[in-house]
């Protein structure tokens, strides 16, 4: 049995991150308990918790940072949209200038900018 044939028969995936597991040069799997090497290392580093490897370090912070950036960009667009509308631009022109569809402008930006103006007044 060639090694490639053996690998083809036994395609294995990590139980934690679902990435394909790899073998060492000697043919043994990297990692343990059907986890890949990376997940196994994380599990050992966390003190071998019974529930398995903890989530990747920084994953929650990375997602929070992406959400934060998106929210800030949307708030900036809403502010620009409200300014353009106050300056007398039509819905279509203001939507095109901030880079959103007229449907989004009507459904989100128009309501938000009106309520923001109501609070400011
Ligand atoms: Zn893994």
Entry keywords:
5 helices, 121 residues, 2 domains, binds zinc ion, single chain, mainly alpha
Verbal overview:
The protein folds into two domains: 43 residues; 62 residues. Helices cover 59% and strands 0% of the residues. Helix 3 runs antiparallel to helix 4 and helix 3 crosses helix 5. The longest helix has 28 residues. The mean pLDDT is 85. Bound molecules: zinc ion. Zinc ion binds next to helix 2.
Mean pLDDT: 85
Secondary-structure class: mainly alpha
* Main pleated sheet: none
User: What is the 3D shape?
Assistant: elongated
Spatial extent as radius of gyration: 26 Å
What is the β-strand count?
0
In short:
The chain has helices at residues 3-9, 37-45, 59-86, 91-98, 102-120. The chain is mostly helical. The structure holds zinc ion.
């Amino acid at each position: 049995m060639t090694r490639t044939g053996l690998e083809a028969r036994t395609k294995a995936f990590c139980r934690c991150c679902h990435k394909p597991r790899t073998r060492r040069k000697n043919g043994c799997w990297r990692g343990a308990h059907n986890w890949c090497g990376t997940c196994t290392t994380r599990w050992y580093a966390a003190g071998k918790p019974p529930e398995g490897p903890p989530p990747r370090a920084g994953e929650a912070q990375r997602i929070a940072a992406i959400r934060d950036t998106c929210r800030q960009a949307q708030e900036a667009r809403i502010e620009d949209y409200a300014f353009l509308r106050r300056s007398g631009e039509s819905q279509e022109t203001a939507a095109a200038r901030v880079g959103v569809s007229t449907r989004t402008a009507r459904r989100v930006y128009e309501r938000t900018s009106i309520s923001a103006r109501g609070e400011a007044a």
